[in-house]
Design a protein that fits this description.
The structure is a single chain. With 760 residues, this protein is mainly alpha-helical. It is 72% helix and 0% strand. It has 41 helices and no strands. Helix 12 (225-236) runs parallel beside helix 14 (266-278) and helix 14 (266-278) runs parallel beside helix 16. The structure holds one DNA strand of 10 nucleotides. Pfam families: PPR, PPR_1, PPR_2.
DNA sequence: TTAGGGTTAG
């Protein structure tokens, strides 16, 4: 009785089978909604019965009479639905049991339409095998069996197979399966799995080929959000087995995805933009964001912030402006980070008042957007104020901070203020702030330490700095490479090279390894002190630990060798530099040209200059200055003037104050103060400001010719320009004017200087 | 959001 009932139910089911079949061939994840409940129950009872009969001894025997199992499964004129066979198979104990069932179905079915059922059964076998040990080999073997029996894989079976083979790293087998899958069965889920597997196996080009087909406008398998996740994730991945997706591809792909209404989420978009900006590809980042905007994707402040940061670093203020305008137009609400970026940029370019205005508007919401500042923003402004010497205003911002909830001054706040006071030479106030932060339990860090040490060193208190370091070390704040760089530099500056070397050794011994800057600092100090052997040995140490010399460091060495008259060593260094692939710059050539011309080797100096030009470098004002100076030194002022005229006209390098100083000084010393005065007029015309060196040179020239009126005129001009006299000026003028009884003029000059100093 | 270095002509 059970059988007959089942047979009739089967008939009922068969009516639905075309629909079920269609589902099978295009089935994607997630699976289609479950059938009706009564159908469910019918199926369940059929499956239960089938499973019971499969335990019976006559299953798999080739009896001539119809068995109950055959009756159940094949009684009517057509086979039962593939869905049923698959569900029976799924409940078998193993893939080998399932394979036996497959063979049973194959040999017992008389129907022509059994093929879809067999495919479906095979899918279930794959499912079982995929959960068994050694699944990839089992699946591969089963795939062979299916092919042997001409049973096409369902798309889900193919998907499962590919995923499993991919996990086992079987690249070639994956490619074979992909090639053999019936193209008409492929769906988006299948393509997603293929792409994912290919990426993981490092087959980027194969993955992109599949993706390209998905992205075609008339694609049978259009991309969905999962496709997006796979691709955008792959774009951001750091470690690649194959090649990475290049920037151009990224922009193109995001744009094509957009045509299918698939977009990176805010996090992915922001990450992609950040990645481009870090590689200085703000143009691509810009295109990326705007593609998403144009095709209607969601763009939030975070992504815009990433781009604003990149544009700011590249100094592209025009695009920054455009982007903020677009944000307004598109109703993308700026947040505290957006304002932070803008305010930071203004502070860094010393436009602190502009920054304060933006800050005020933001806090009041007077421009339509009200945002509460955070500690970072306060710190940015405080730093900005301190960097332009407005520490007191910085302190009043700290008071504002205190009055705002959850915005207490922190270590960074104090560090900025301490640096401000140190830079202005108010070391005591910096120390007071240091004491205050300790009282408030805002803990100093190594930056606090270094800021104070640097301040002390720069204001002649090296010993206090060392004492302070020792004190802090004993309290647990250890110095780092920066600390030692500061101290080494400070000792080099006061020509205490031994002490500098001592600190260098001390840091290595105390387990703080020097970084490249520490090496560069010491090399420079030694080179300037003329200790080239020591400098060379530090260079060797630097190389031993794996650092490289950069252009400036090579220049320092070349300059050092020149100073010691070791031209051969200088050339050797230049050669090494070129061989190491470090391009000499104009400073390198200028150093050599200066040395060569000063030692009278003008032919070689000009040859080096030609080489410089050949290498694509333009002679600079320093190049011409070096030559002019050398010609003047040997009394060939005409030659110097010739170069001077040439640089302004032919080479289009405008002369600066130093150039004029060299010439004016030489002309005066050469008894040609008239010509020197005409050069001073020339400076006025060209807008080149004279400095104290200019005035000292011309005053000496005027004194030698006793041209008093001209001197008075220039003294007035000095006061006007707030150019402070130095001891040379005073010496020359005092001696001369006293001798000629013009002490009144001198007194007036000193008073004028005092007035101009106080007003300045 | 905070700290360090080195080069050429007077």
């Amino acid at each position: 009785m059970a059988i007959s009932i089942s047979a009739s139910k089967l008939f009922k089911l068969r009516l639905h089978s075309p629909i079920i079949l269609r589902h099978l061939s295009t089935e994607s994840n997630p699976p289609p909604p479950p059938p009706h409940q009564d159908q469910d129950q019918d199926q369940d009872s059929l499956i239960t019965q089938a499973l019971q009969l499969l335990q019976a001894p006559d299953y798999d025997s080739n009896s001539n009479t119809t068995t109950p199992l055959q009756e159940l499964l094949f009684s009517s004129s057509s086979p039962s639905s593939p869905f049923i066979f698959r569900n029976i198979t799924r409940r078998l104990s193993s893939s080998s049991e399932a394979l036996k069932f497959f063979h049973y179905l194959q040999s017992n079915s008389t129907s022509q339409d059994i093929l879809p059922s067999l495919s479906s059964t095979f899918q279930a076998i794959f499912e079982l095998a995929s959960r068994e040990p050694d699944s990839h080999n089992k699946l591969l073997e089963l795939y062979g069996t299916a092919k042997e029996h001409n049973v096409p894989l369902t798309i889900n079976a193919a998907t499962l197979l590919i995923r499993c083979l991919g996990r086992a790293g079987m690249v070639d087998q994956v490619l074979v399966v992909v090639k053999e899958v019936d193209p008409s069965l492929k769906n988006t889920h299948f393509c997603n799995v293929v792409i994912d597997v290919m990426f993981r196996l490092g087959r980027v080009d194969d993955a992109l080929k599949v993706l390209d087909e998905m992205l075609q406008p008339d694609s049978e398998c259009p991309p969905n959000d999962s496709t997006g996740d796979i691709i955008f994730g792959a774009m951001l991945r750091r470690e690649w087995r194959g090649r990475s997706i290049n920037d151009e591809e990224i922009v193109g792909l995001v744009s094509k995805f957009g045509e299918h209404d698939v977009f990176p989420d805010t996090f992915q978009l922001t990450q992609l933009i950040t990645k481009f900006c870090r590689n200085r590809k703000t143009g691509r980042a810009w295109d990326l964001l705007h593609d998403v905007m144009k095709s209607g994707g969601v763009v939030e402040a975070a992504s815009c912030n990433a781009l604003l940061t990149g544009l700011g670093k590249g100094g592209d203020f025009e695009r920054m402006n455009n982007l903020t305008t677009e944000m307004k137009e598109m109703n993308i609400q700026p947040n505290v980070v957006t304002f932070g970026i803008l305010i930071n940029l203004m502070c860094k370019s010393r436009r602190v008042d502009d920054a304060l205005e933006v800050f005020k508007k933001m806090k009041e919401g007077s421009d339509g957007v009200l945002v509460e500042p955070d500690a970072i923003m306060y710190n940015t402004l405080i730093d900005g104020l301190c960097k332009v010497g407005r520490q007191e205003e910085g302190l009043s911002l700290v008071e504002q901070m205190r009055s705002q909830n959850g915005c207490a001054p922190n270590t960074v706040t104090y560090n900025c203020l301490i640096d401000g006071f140190c830079k202005s030479g108010e070391i005591e106030r910096a120390q007071e702030l240091f004491d205050q932060m300790n009282r408030e339990s805002v803990f100093p860090n190594v930056i606090t330490l270094n800021t104070l040490i640097d301040g002390m060193c720069r204001h002649g208190r090296i010993n206090s700095a060392v004492e302070f370091l020792n004190d802090m070390q004993s309290k647990g704040v250890k110095g780092n490479a920066v600390t030692y760089a500061i101290l080494i530099n400070a000792f080099c500056n006061v020509n205490n090279i031994d002490k500098a070397m001592e600190f260098f050794d001390q840091m290595s011994n105390s387990g703080c390894s020097p970084d490249a800057i520490v090496y560069y600092t010491l090399i420079s100090g030694l080179s300037q002190a003329g200790r080239m052997d020591d400098a060379s040995s530090v260079v060797s140490k630097l190389k031993e630990v794996g650092f490289c010399l950069d252009t400036v460091c090579y220049n320092v060495l070349i300059g050092g060798f020149c100073k010691k008259n070791k031209l051969d060593k200088a050339y050797e260094t230049l050669k090494e530099m070129e061989e190491a692939g470090v391009k000499p710059d104009s400073v390198t050539y200028n150093t050599l040209i200066s040395y060569l011309s000063k030692t009278g080797n003008f032919t070689t100096a000009h040859r080096v200059m030609r080489k410089m030009i050949k290498e694509g470098l333009k002679p600079t004002v320093v190049t011409y200055g070096a030559l002019i100076h050398a010609y003047c030194l040997i009394g060939k002022i005409d030659e110097g003037m010739k170069i001077f005229r040439d640089m302004g006209s032919a080479s289009k390098v405008p002369p600066n104050t130093v150039i004029y100083n060299i010439l004016i000084d030489s002309l005066c010393k050469n008894d040609d103060v008239e010509h020197a005065l005409s050069l001073m007029d020339d400076m006025k015309v060209k807008g080149v400001k004279p400095n104290i060196t200019t005035y000292n040179a011309i005053f000496k020239g005027l004194r030698d010719k006793n041209l008093l009126e001209k001197a008075f005129e220039l003294m007035d001009r000095m006061i006007e320009q707030a150019c402070n006299p130095d001891y040379i000026t005073m010496e020359v003028l005092t001696e001369w004017l006293s001798a000629v009884g013009e002490t009144g003029k001198l007194k007036k000059f000193v008073q004028g200087y005092e007035v101009s100093a106080s007003s300045a």
